[in-house]
């Protein structure tokens, strides 16, 4: 095979969050590094995922705020939404962050960046448009793409995914969302806040991975916003209806047609493995992605797979975590393994829904009835009252002895409040560490401290403690 040839220490395939982190770390440690990307630098998170979705949600929250501020004695006229300007805002946010992920920045770090699509030609060798790269270690970080379910008629109608919805130039009159996971629910609330009619169709239950009690409360909020949520929906087919789209549901009574102007498919993700020729490198993979062990090593011991393509939790922060595991294994030869016990995730609705570690249901499955479930409502928090953010609840799950297993939060800034619980679970802390923490007043963080303190309430104010106090009082 003729053409340019590179012999390097590390070759990273994919310039999303996972690949960029490995490439930056390796290059700054003085390791010769090649980074290959066929699409846009920054991958899904920057261009079509986390960043634009949160920017759109921020715009929607601003549009929704006028409904709440009357409680403060301040009133506004209903907002006028300039959807083209909202779209410019979303892309401006992407543009502001893009330099951090740019070719120029990584070349400045010493990374050799090659634009193109890589494919394996051997156990330690890949090729990109005629350039051959041989590497001591190869990292596959090609991410995932929107999965398109086999719905009859879907191929014959225009539809959006997370990869195209942020390019949409008009505010949907009626957005039909197929899928009730985090992406579907976030986009449903964002578009509803900007003025669209929204219907969510979910085959099972919405946000199935989260705590059922908190999801039930969030469902109430979505319905109060005017979002139609149809769980257990069976889609028979989709078809054109004039200038719009009809989703036909199969019901016990026959069929039901739901008419919309736009259709968003948010029915999960699939790992990007097509075209890599993984077989030529002896790399095993399946429907979920590339098969890896606890150290993220594939069936080819010189190849790692990280991020979404590795078939595990599909979050940007997991991709960054995976990058650290690879750096320790590949460069420092440390036997680092993934540990998801304290894994957090957040759905950025209003209110936010955050989770770390085990939900109550998962804890009961693992530990039976040998757990404690602690709760504290937002409305019992003074800061929440002052800011009129009283909708919400924290749930903390511990062992009978008080070791923290998980925390679930629904409420304002839940994504920020979950951090301390990630630390507690990851470090194996006992609930007394959180109960004894001094929390500044008035803060929302006191909600977690109060929940932790409730672990000790039955014993602290029980009959035995009261007898002890009486005895001590007689001693003068």
TrEMBL record:
Query: What's the cofactor?
Result: FAD
Molecular-function annotations in GO = flavin adenine dinucleotide binding; NAD(P)H dehydrogenase (quinone) activity; oxidoreductase activity, acting on a sulfur group of donors, NAD(P) as acceptor
Residues holding FAD: 54, 142-144, 308
Q: Does the keyword Flavoprotein apply?
A: yes
Gene3D superfamilies (alphabetical): 3.30.390.30, FAD/NAD(P)-binding domain (3.50.50.60)
List, for all copies, the residue spans of the domain called FAD/NAD(P)-binding: 9-322
Q: Which cysteines are joined by disulfide bonds?
A: 45-50
Q: How is the cofactor bound?
A: Binds 1 FAD per subunit.
Q: Where is the Pyridine nucleotide-disulphide oxidoreductase dimerisation domain?
A: 344-451
Annotated InterPro entries: FAD/NAD-bd_sf (IPR036188), FAD/NAD-binding_dom (IPR023753), FAD/NAD-linked_Rdtase_dimer_sf (IPR016156), Pyr_nuc-diS_OxRdtase (IPR001100), Pyr_nucl-diS_OxRdtase_dimer (IPR004099), Pyr_OxRdtase_I_AS (IPR012999)
Q: What are the entry keywords?
A: Disulfide bond, FAD, Flavoprotein, NAD, NADP, Nucleotide-binding, Oxidoreductase, Redox-active center
Q: Where does NAD(+) bind?
A: 179-186, 202, 268
A Pfam family reported for this protein in Swiss-Prot or TrEMBL = Pyr_redox_dim
The answer to whether keyword Oxidoreductase applies is yes
Any coiled-coil regions, as ranges: none
What family does the entry list?
Belongs to the class-I pyridine nucleotide-disulfide oxidoreductase family.
Any idea what this protein is called? Answer: Dihydrolipoamide dehydrogenase
Organism of this sequence: Salinarimonas soli
From the broadest rank down, the organism's phylogenetic lineage runs:
Bacteria, Pseudomonadati, Pseudomonadota, Alphaproteobacteria, Hyphomicrobiales
